[in-house]
Every structure is written in structure tokens, then in C-alpha cells.
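Could you please review the protein record set out just below?
***
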Amino acid sequence: MSRVQKAILAILAVSASAVWYVILSAPPEVLTIYFFDVGQGDSALVTSPDGTQILIDGGPDDTVLRRLGEVMPFYDRSLDAIILTHPHADHVNGLVKVLERYEVGMVIDSGAVYATGAYKEWERRIRDKHIPHVIAVSGQRMIAGGDLRVDMIAPLESFEGASRKNVHDGMVVVELAYGETSVLFTGDMEDDLERKLLYFGVLPNTDILKVGHHGSKTSSAESFLKAVSPEAAVISSGQKNRYGHPHEDVLVRLEQLGISLHRTDEEGTVVLVADAFGTYTFRGK
């Protein structure tokens, strides 16, 4: 073999090694969800394999800004979508702050009327910044980046312009699915809406459940838990909160059904990392 041939083979060998190194060292295609510790409230950041970022609820205050800063690059001031499950303060207040600081591709909510200063400010900022506004209704589907599917489970009818005594009636319930892994976000859903969704047969089986209403006694009935049959659950609540969340009855039901539990009041921000083949892990931030 000539010196030229040997040199060519050496170059090819190095090139092949470089290709294999790139393949083996490439970051895995995973879905990451940060269930933020925002005290007594809900907020979660969903990051798809291609970097699409969806924020679900914003907690009661500007703590969400600090949590976003902890997991997003300092130069990144954009979110592809925000989903507001309902307009109570412990879900919407932080989102008003987010709209001040971040560019947002679209917002999704029920469109219900709710006469509080924070919710009116939420609506005003959406209008002033000309952010596309989608009214959530069961049956809608959005395909986000990286093969992330976003399905609206509730509300079952449009609540646009509607005023209800109990805003939980118009709760936005959403399932995220990436390959064989699915996560059900229930906002502050309580047992009356659970029964309604059971009756209409729209509840999916899911791998991970974000427990409704911070684990209150009026959420997560046994019939509901058996219908969605999660393997794991996450409860977002504040330490030693005055509501007694999560309630002992809910904790017992989850344990009796063999559902593993993660809690922001005990663990801080809970991080879910999942691939498209149904494999997932939880870890602290």
C-alpha cells in the first residue's frame, strides 16, 4: 500500500470516528417539563425536543420569572405559547408579569369573563401586544415542534364571553403527548368536572397526571383516577399553605392505586424528562 493510500485510509478512519462521536454525543430527543415551585399556585414550562417552549399557568406572583430564568438561557426572552387553565390569581397573576418581559407567540385560554384586575390586565396586554388569542374547546389539536401533540380535553363548549359564578366550570384541561409518553394537565379541575368528562368519554389514559386543584379534597376522585390510570402524579402546592393542600384523602387514594407522587412543596421544582418510547424520569431541578 502506497503512502498516499495509507494517508487516505487514515483520513477516512478519522472522519468515521468523528461521525460516530457526533452521533453518540448528540443530545437525546426528549421532552422536558419543569413543574415550577411557585408556592401556592401552578406553573409549568414544557420544552419539546426541538426547543419549542409552552408555559402552562404562571402562579400567584413574579416568582415564575425567577423560575424561567433558572432554566432558560439569559438571552432567551420568548415563549411559543402560554396556556391559562383559568383566571384565578394563583394561575394568572404571574402570567401578567411574563407578558411584560417575554415575546409570546400565542395565548390559549377559555375566553371566560372574570372581573379581577389581574385578569383584565392579562387581556389588555394580549390586545396591546397583538398576540394571537386562541379560545380553547375540547377536540382542538395543536402539533408543536419536535412531534409534541397538544390536545384540548376541556372545556366541552366555548366559554368565550361567558360569565360563570364558578370559573372552574370553564377549566382548560390539556393533554400533551410525545410519542408514547403523555401528560395530563388539569388546572384546578374538581370532581364535578371530572364526572362530566367521564360521562362524555373524553378522558384519555395518561402516564403522568398533574393533580387537579393542588390536591384538594374536592379533586381526584377514585373513579377519575382509575379512568386516566396514571403511573405518576405531580402536585403543585405551597409549603404549609392555609388550605391544607394536598388533602390526606387524595394522598391516600394515590397511594392505594399505586401512583407514584412528586410534590413541589416537598421537592421544589419537579423536572420530568421523557423520550418518545414511554420512558421517563423525574428529578429535582
